[in-house]
Design a protein that fits this description.
The protein has ten helices and 13 strands. The strands form two sheets. It has a seven-stranded mixed beta sheet. The longest helix is centred in the C-terminal third of the chain and has 21 residues. The protein binds zinc ion. Zinc ion binds next to loops.
Length: about 280
């Protein structure tokens, strides 16, 4: 599987794998008979250009719409290069209108990290992906929604569904019911912007239910190099829920929770620490 080549997962759905060296996320294309929808814009003009070049090789209907899954830089910096009518949640639009007026120089980024508006990880990745940023233009979405939108692309549809979650309150998923595929982007990840990383039961549990309510066979996560099957997602989220429930019942007692879990690995401990951080927040 090549990082720079689109992969096909179902009759109408293609995806570009992520690249962790500069935090490039998964990008997607849903190709109908009439038009193609692009899912996320990439983390730079260069990322967007390589995505557009790949889509152009597919011999599918021309891209006519772009959807942004949430406001984080790695999903939106390529939007001006893609230059299509763009849909997103209302909160994504609000934030992008604000961010479009920001200074993106190294000094301004450093200041925002010091002020707690930006985090070190994103600043460092922005500097590697975009060493020169003087001509960076952020393009806010044209069309904003609050709950959901359905796009007919010709023989296939895309449901843009707001799910929120700890990672970003504006997170949406893109569900393609005919192909039983979901682009879930980063919605299942913890909150990274207010360290330490945190999960809250209030946000995470309804989100998990909403993801599994989609009648899908495959889910594409924003930074995973392989799609996950429905079974894999159910197993993973079942474990998350178990850890969350133990935190709910036992409170801030890490030792007792780990004893109750019995067998656990480093990922379980990381998830547990996210829930414990969430507990302190409320
Ligand atoms: Zn994100």
């Amino acid at each position: 599987m090549s990082q720079s080549k689109l992969n096909q997962i179902s009759p109408h759905v293609y995806w570009l794998p992520p690249d962790s060296t500069t935090d490039r996320p998964v990008l997607g294309a849903v190709a109908g008979e009439r038009s193609t929808l692009l899912v996320d814009a990439g983390n730079s003009p260069a990322h967007a250009r390589s995505f557009l070049a790949e889509v152009a090789r597919l011999q599918v209907a021309p891209p006519q719409f772009l959807v942004l899954t949430h406001w984080h830089w790695d999903h939106i910096f390529g939007a001006a290069t893609i230059g299509l009518p763009t849909l997103a949640h209302q909160e994504t639009r609000r934030r992008l209108v604000e961010m479009a007026g920001w200074d993106w120089s190294d000094a301004a980024l450093d200041e925002r990290v010091a002020a707690g508006v930006e985090i070190e990880f994103c600043r460092d990745m922005i500097k590697v992906e975009l060493p020169g940023r003087t001509d960076l233009v952020l393009r806010p979405p044209d069309i904003a929604f609050t709950e959901w939108v359905e796009l007919g692309l010709g023989g296939v549809s895309a449901q843009l569904i707001h799910v929120g979650g700890d990672h970003a309150p504006d997170s949406i998923i893109v569900f393609i019911p005919e192909d039983r595929v979901v682009f879930m982007s980063d919605c299942l990840a913890p909150d990274l912007y207010h360290p330490p990383r945190r999960y809250t039961i209030q946000q995470l549990f309804p989100l998990i239910d909403q993801l599994l309510q989609c009648e899908a066979d495959f889910y594409l996560m924003g930074h995973n190099s392989e799609p996950v099957s429905r079974m894999e997602l159910a197993t993973y989220t079942g474990r998350l829920k178990l850890i969350g429930q133990l935190v709910e019942h036992l409170g801030n007692d890490r030792t007792a929770i780990l004893a109750e879990l019995g067998r656990f690995d480093a990922d379980d401990e990381e998830d547990l620490d996210c829930f414990l951080a969430g507990l302190k927040q409320v």
